[in-house]
Amino acid sequence: MRAALDTEVRRDDRIAVIYDRASTAMQKDNYSRADAARLSEFAERIGYKWELRKEIKSGENLVNRPIMRQLLGDIADGKVGAIICQDFTRLSRDEDGIDGRIIRQACRDNGCLIITPDKTYDFTLDVDDDLADIGFLIGKIQKRQNLKSLTKGMMEKARQGKLMPTYARLGYDWSELNKETGKKAPTAELKVNQREAEIVRLIFDLYEQKSQKQVALYLNESGHRMPCKSPGWRRKYGREQRLFVPKDINDIISDPLYTGLVIWGRNCRSRYTKGFEAQSHFFPELQLISFEQFNRCQRIKEQRYRLPGKSVFSPYMYSGMLRCVYCGGPTVGKRHRERRGGEYSMQKKYECRGYHTAGSTACRGQSIYETVVRRAVMPFLLDVLLDKINLRHYLEAAARQYDTEKADKEEYLRAEIANTELGMKRLVDAIADGAIITEQAKTKNMELLEQKERAQRRLEAIQHRQEMREEIVEALKLLNKDLEGVLNAMPDEVHSQLVRMVFRSFSVEASGFGWERQAEIKAYEFQPEFADLLAHSLHTARHGR
Predict the structure, then answer these.
(1) Could you tell me the pTM of the whole model?
(2) DSSP letter assigned to residue 284
(3) Residue 142 sits in the same domain as residue 269
(4) Own/partner pairs for 361-369, CB < 8 Å, 24+ apart?
(5) Looking at the 3D structure of the chain, how many domains does it have?
(6) pLDDT tens series, the chain, 545 aa
(7) Residue 110 is part of which domain span?
(8) Considering the domain boundaries, does residue 247 fall inside one?
(9) Tally of CA atoms within 13 A in the half-sphere of 524 that contains its CB
């Protein structure tokens, strides 16, 4: 402080702004925040009229710091003659040093000083300009070291299975909350909220029959609400709960936490986590749904991803796939009132969208009943699945592949996990008794953790293989029956899902007159995965392998 008082500073009619920044609200009681309260007294002692501007934001970039951006605007307008802060690095801590140079340039162009308790920086002087580079470099180094330490600690906690989500998801609560911030307390544990858990289970059940939008509408109409558990959500919506939206449904059915798996490190992009393998730990007490249902929902989600939004659970089986046989354009589904046998009934038809909207100038137009389209699709599917692909052969091969792991292997892995956990417990006892030093304990603990994680991953793989084998066995049972009869007896929604797994688009040409018109598929495009499977099957048959 004395060094700043001895420095000659320029006073004019401009004000001094005390810029008080902290990265989080949790820092308000540390030394730098307490020191900020004394800066007002310091500003008066050096002869400045001042005002205080506080900002709770990270110093990594200017984009997310509205107070600092406004301050730079006031400097450019000639309203601010000095910035007073606790420490030079409080102005910027971006790793590239770009933001710090922007701040310095604004101050230098407008004759604004930067004053700390230790020094006054006047950027019209070469020595202060050079010292600023050193100050920003120090801030960069400090930020890097902080990130390294923080990331290292997070990775270690992830390996030990102690790194939980930052806020409680729907279906869970924290056992203890910080009364000031509303966030979880350091010692808090995740626990199941039984009332919300029922909503989660309902969402997974509904998703197998309805689209995301339909699930959200059903929940809202039933009186269910999405709780705003994170402080950010509560600030954004200004209440404790809100209506469900389709994105909520997508986030919920995509979160493996509901199976009891806590995973960290899947999408790490930081250079400090390079080479880090994602860590997953299973907590049975947090499991709300089965792995089988979760995997089914992921497959359904993948299938729907390729569809137009309106085609998901559309009442028209071939919505989004059927094309006009004349122009190749999309078709639109509509209901048509038909009179047959003296009675009226509503029948589903498809019409060329070009003709429907622009008339014969766009296309001569095709109009075809859904029942006629199905007559063309069924024999085509039978021919492809049984003759060209030899589906039975692939299913039998897949069943043999997934049957390689035996039940005794699963028991062996469970015993290995139990022995590893027992070894970790003994290690803790050895440390308490002073029989092993801390460094040796860390090394041994890491070895046991890696051994346990390897066994858990192998056990999860076996369980997944068994699940896949059961599905394949069920498929083989269908093939042992009359497949044509099975396909014809399929409900419309199941038939639609099967067709969408095979086709990306197709067109149908009909011949004859009346209700019993005949039809065949004329042009088609397979889904990429199905096309690869068909090509491999044809190649194998051609070369006798």
Answers:
(1) 0.52
(2) G
(3) no
(4) 362/327, 363/324, 363/326, 363/327, 363/329, 364/326, 365/324, 365/326, 366/324, 366/325, 366/326, 366/331, 368/508, 368/510, 368/519, 369/517
(5) 3
(6) 334 444 444 445 788 888 888 766 555 444 444 555 567 777 777 677 888 888 877 766 777 788 888 888 888 888 888 888 877 777 877 766 677 788 888 888 888 888 887 788 888 888 888 887 777 777 777 777 776 776 776 667 666 666 677 778 888 888 887 766 667 777 778 888 999 999 999 999 999 888 888 899 999 999 999 888 776 667 766 778 889 999 999 999 998 889 888 777 666 666 666 666 667 778 888 889 888 888 888 888 877 776 655 555 678 888 888 999 999 999 988 887 777 666 777 888 899 988 888 888 889 889 898 889 998 998 888 888 777 666 666 556 655 555 554 545 667 777 777 777 777 777 666 766 666 666 666 677 777 777 777 777 777 766 666 665 566 556 555 555 566 777 777 788 778 877 887 888 899 998 876 556 788 898 888 887 777 777 777 667 666 55
(7) 2-151
(8) yes
(9) 20
The verdict on residue 526 lying in a domain is yes
Are 374 and 494 in the same domain? yes
- Please list the residues that pair with 103 across neighbouring strands: none
CB atoms within 10 A of CB 97: 15
Is 136:92 a contact under the CB 8 Å cutoff?
Answer: yes
In three-state form (DSSP H/G/I as H, E/B as E, the rest C), the secondary structure along 88-120 is: HHHCCCCCCCHHHHHHHHHHHHCCCEEECCCCE
Note whether 425 and 296 are same-domain residues: no
Phi, psi of 393 (to 5 degrees): -60, -45
Closest CA to 291 of 79, 465, 126: 465
For residues 488 and 401, membership in a common domain is answered with: yes
The amino acid present at 324, given as its one-letter code, is: C
3-state secondary structure 288-346: CCCHHHHHHHHHHHHHHHCCCHHHCCCCCCCCCCEECCCCCCEEEEEEEEEEECCEEEE
CB 95 within 8 A of CB 60: yes
Residue type, 478: L
Q: Burial letters for 28-60: b for 16+ Cβ neighbours within 10 Å, e otherwise?
A: eeeebeeebeebbebbeebebebeebebebebb
How is residue 498 written in tokens?
Answer: 């099967």
